[in-house]
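Q: What would this complex look like in 3D?
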Amino acid sequence: MTPDQMIARIWTIRKANPGNLMARHFDEDYFRSLDEPARQRLERIIKTGIENPDSQMGAYAMNPDDYDRFAPMLDPMIRDFHGISAETEIAQKHDWDTGASPCDLGAIDARLKEVSMRVRVARNVGSFPLPGAMNKEQRVALEKLAAQAFARLIEDPAFGGSYFSITPGTANEIDAAEYDRRVKAHQMFKDMSTDRYLNVAGISADWPHGRGMYVSGAEDFLVWVGEEDHLRIMAMQHGGNLNVLFERLRIGLECLQDLLPAFATSPRYGNVTSCPTNLGAGMRASLHMRLPGLTSNGRDLTRLKREAKTLGLAVRGAGGEHSDAGEGGLVDISPSARLGVTEMEIMRRLYDGAAALWAMENA
Ligand code: ADP
Ligand code: MG
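A: Here is my prediction, written as C-alpha cells for the whole assembly.
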C-alpha cells in the first residue's frame, strides 16, 4: 500500500466508522512530515485500525517510547478515549491507600457478598519491545525472567502456587485439557491466535511461545505472561469487599516489582501499555454481577450499557471482551477510565457504580 492509498483508506474509514479513533484523529500533514523510517513505524502502530475498521481505538504501541515519539498522532486519540480535554495537562497520579475509603458491597446488600471480583493491572518490562514488536526469542526470554520471579513467589508462604506454561516443550508445560480448564475457570487467557485485532498488530505472533500464567496457592493472585501486555497482574476473589481485593493486588504487585527489571512508565501517561486504552493506572477492576432485570435475563445489554455509561462503567459479557452475557444476566462491569484517575478512584467508581446499578435492578 502506498502512502496515498493508505491515507485514502483512512478517509473512507473515517466516514464509515466514526467510532474508530485512529481514523478520527489521523493527521495527514503530520504523517507526511515524518521521514520514511518514522512513517513505517507509525504505519505499524495504526495498521490494526486500518485492517479492522470496526476498531474502537485502532492503534497498538510497539515500543515503550512510541507514545512520546508519535504524540502528535496518539495524544489526541488518548485524550478522546479517556475523556481528557486538549487544555488539561495529563499527569498520572497513583494512590493505593485502601484504608481511606471502605468499599464493601456486602454492607449494602447481603446478596452482594458473593460477587466475583477481579482487578488487574497491565505492566511491561522497559527493556523489551512491547508484544506487537517482539520476536520469538524475546517472548521466550521474557517468560524465563518472569518464571524466575514466580519461583521466588512460590517459596513465599504468602503466595505459594505454581507457574503453568503453554510454551511447547518447556518445564511447567500444561496440556490442552488443563489449559481449557483454566480458561473456563476465568483464570487463563483465551487463544490469541484467532483474534483479528491482535493478529494484525503482531501481538499474537509466535503463539503459544512465551505464554503462561502464575497462580497463587489460594488462587487469588494471578499473573498472565505474554498476552496483550508482557504481564497482566491480578487479584481475584469471591466476596464484595473491594478493599481486601485491592490490598491483595497491591502487595503482590510490590513483590513482583522487586523481582523484575523496571517496568516501562511515562511521566505523562503513567504505566505504558500496548493499547492506549490501558495507559495510566493500567487497571481494570471488574465485578461479575447478575443483573437479570436490566438485561432481560442476559438477552439484551442495550439498556444496561446505556445506564452503565452514565456511571462511567463499561459492560462486557461474562466471558470477557467481545462475549455475551451469561446465564441469569451475568455480566462484567468495570470503570472505563484508566488514565488520569488513581487506583483508588477506580475502586470507588466501581463501588459507587455497582451500588447504583444494584439499586436500579431492584427498583
Ligand atoms: P482483561 O482484558 O481486563 O484482562 P478480559 O475481558 O479479557 O479482561 O477477561 C479476562 C478473563 O477474566 C475472562 O475469562 C473474564 O470472564 C474474566 N473476568 C473478568 N472479570 C471477572 C470477574 N469479576 N470475576 C471473574 N472473572 C472475571
Ligand atoms: Mg483483554
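A: To summarize the key features: Residues 136-155 form the longest helix (20 residues). The chain has a mean pLDDT of 96.
Q: Very helpful, thank you.
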